[in-house]
Amino acid sequence: MEKLDDLERKVLRIMVNHSKLASKQLSIEKLCQFTGKREGRVRHVLIVLEQTGFIAVTSQLPFRYRVLRESEAPRYGWERMNGHVTQKGHGKGHGFSDRI
């Protein structure tokens, strides 16, 4: 079972939090803006997230995705706490960096 690296977790956190707050999906350009990474790196992260089962990409042009529900996504040591998915052992959501 492979763990996600920091950028992969960050992108997934952004996607999960945005899907809860907004009805409009994020574009790749917005993900680049929020992460400070170039498009190629963000696209690579999206491929990893899809291959590991955290998101389902439904369209490339325009980019459309679906964040999988907790029951659909692999566990990877993540638990749901206070409406957010946090990594085991990191306490109870101490700020944005602990949430996914």
Describe the structure.
The protein is of the alpha+beta class and 100 residues long. The chain has one domain (6-89): Orthogonal Bundle (Arc Repressor Mutant, subunit A). It has three helices and four strands, in the order αααββββ. It has helices spanning 6-21, 28-35, 39-51, and strands at residues 55-59, 64-67, 78-81, 84-87. The chain has a two-stranded antiparallel ribbon. Helix 1 (6-21) crosses helix 3. The longest helix is centred in the N-terminal third of the chain and has 16 residues, at 6-21.
DSSP strand count:
4
The fourth-level CATH homologous superfamily is Winged helix-like DNA-binding domain superfamily/Winged helix DNA-binding domain
What is the count of structural domains? Answer: 1
Q: Tell me the helix content.
A: 25-40%
CATH fold-level label:
Arc Repressor Mutant, subunit A
Secondary-structure content class: alpha+beta
CATH architecture: Orthogonal Bundle
Largest sheet: 2 strands, antiparallel
The backbone outline, from C-alpha atoms, is: globular
**How many H/I helices?**
3
Written as H for each helix and E for each strand, in order along the chain, the element string is HHHEEEE
Strand content: 15-25%
Strand order of the largest sheet: 1-2
CATH C-level class: Mainly Alpha
Report how far apart the termini are: 18 Å
